Amino acid sequence: MSSTNGYAAALTAAALFGVQYVPVKKHEIYDGSVFQWFMCSGILFAGVTLGIICEGEIPKVELVDLLGGMFWTTQNMLLMPVVKLLGLGLGFAIFSGTNVFSGYIIGRLGLFGNVADPGSIPWLRDMGAGLLVVSFALMVLIKPNGDKPGPHGRTALAILSHSPTTGMRKVRSCPEMPKYDFGLISPGSNSDGSAADVEQPFLATDARRQDSRAEDTVESEALKRAAGIVLVAVAGFLNSLSAMPFNWWSTKNPTAHKGSFIFAQSLGIWMVSTTLYLSYASTRKVLSYASPPHTCIRPAFLSGLLWASGFVCMCLSIDGLGFTAGFTYSSVVPVIVSSLLSVFWFREIQGSVQLAMFGGCFVIQSLGVCLIALGSH
User: Fold this and answer.
1) Do the beta carbons of residue 342 and residue 348 sit within 8 Å?
2) 328 close to 370: Cβ distance less than 8 angstroms
3) What's 281-324 look like in SS3?
4) What's the CA gap between 295 and 27, in Å, rounded?
5) CA distances from 135 to 39, 93, 323, 366 (A)
6) Quick count: other Cβ atoms within 10 Å of Cβ 312?
């Protein structure tokens, strides 16, 4: 595949990835567990359809071919608690930085069985990748208008953090548990559940309770932040691994249509998605939680179709440009696309200072992409 076609595929992938979550912007997704299953079902539908179109039959897959989809679904699920643990801005910056840096290094050094792809001018490429990571760090400083997602508002991380209320009744997807777990008789009750006149020696004085709460709060926030950083970094790394099985498959099947690999990717995605959802829903049932509230089907399904189409284009760009450039473009340019949508369509970034900061990040990202392109040929 020529480099021209590779760039065209990368741009198409960027457009599809950049708009993939737009269909669900105005819909409630609750805790994301049902939403991701509907989305992954859309991905599987597209994978089966495109696989049959490319091969004339359902493509044969090996276990290793499923790994990319498994990595992708796992990182998608890891993102769900990140916003509450870490915050959207910092979470997005760490995720994007880890994802782009990991993918770039894997291709640059030829890790995990890939062929090293340093480009024709390695230092120029390295400088471009560094600028991309810096731009994501600077995006933390950009504050969106009101409580809407910012320039990264079409990413999974942002979608899972935002619960619109317009036109819909808010439903608590995970109601608070009783003070004493799961219907067990609480201290201060008789065996029949009636109140008992029992002292509660574990209660401290007000002053001591306040001090204890303050210490617990500080400790809890530190633990949450640490857990959030670990989760989002792992998610970013797993996302960078999700495209590698295509490289392995492409080497073993040089004459096969590159688009047919979407079947293996989508099957791996759906298998893990279904397993995680059933495990999560069953656990809630056992622990006496309500069933996960259902989200919209068609918008989530459409998001899956868009993602699957974007992944095919990303595979074609990797085939034409190499893993380092193809993966980097397909990871970074969608952020630029979604940022432009955020500013010019959804009007989520307003004010001269915020727009100037956004413009600066946009210039840095564009420069980074250009340096990688110049260093590739």
Assistant:
1) yes
2) no
3) HHHHHHCCCCCCCCCCCHHHHHHHHHHHHHHHHHHHHHHHHCHH
4) 8
5) 29, 9, 22, 10
6) 25
First to last CA, the chain: 15
Calculate the average pLDDT of the chain.
77
Q: What pLDDT score does 193 carry?
A: 46
95: alpha, beta or left, given left = phi > 0 and alpha = psi -120 to 50?
alpha
For 189, the 3-state DSSP assignment is strand
Tokens of 61: 């897959």
**Spatial distance between the Cα atoms of 149 and 155, rounded to a whole number of angstroms:** 9
Q: Which two tokens stand for residue 276?
A: 């995680």
Both tokens assigned to 7: 């760039």
Segments in the chain below pLDDT 50:
146-154, 160, 163-204
Q: What is the pLDDT of residues 11-27, one digit of tens each?
A: 999 889 888 888 887 77
Question: Between the CA atoms of 123, 125, 131 and 132, what dihedral angle is there, to the nearest 10 degrees?
Answer: -150
Q: What is the pTM of this model?
A: 0.73
Q: At which residue do the structure tokens 């076609």 appear?
A: 5
Beta carbons within 8 Å of 192's beta carbon, 6+ residues apart: none
**The two three-digit tokens of residue 139, written as one number:** 């995006």
Question: Residues 276, 75: contact at Cβ < 8 Å?
Answer: no
Counting Cα atoms < 13 Å in the Cβ hemisphere of 169 gives 2
For 183, half-sphere exposure in the C-beta direction (CA atoms, 13 angstrom radius) is 4
Q: Is 332 exposed, middle or buried (0-12, 13-18, 19+ CB in 10 A)?
A: buried
Q: What is the pLDDT of residue 38?
A: 92
Smallest CA-to-CA distance from 132 within 324, 3, 341, 350 is with 324
Residue 195 pairs in a beta bridge with: 189
Residue 152 contacts residue 339 (beta carbons within 8 Å): yes
How far, CA to CA in Å, does 301 sit from each of 15, 65, 135, 334, 374?
18, 23, 32, 20, 38
The answer to whether residues 343 and 358 touch, using CB atoms and an 8 Å cutoff, is yes
Q: What is the pLDDT of residue 158?
A: 56
Tokens of 349: 């970034």
Per the document, the length of the chain is 377
Beta bridge partners, 189, equal 195
- Token pair for residue 226? 């640490």
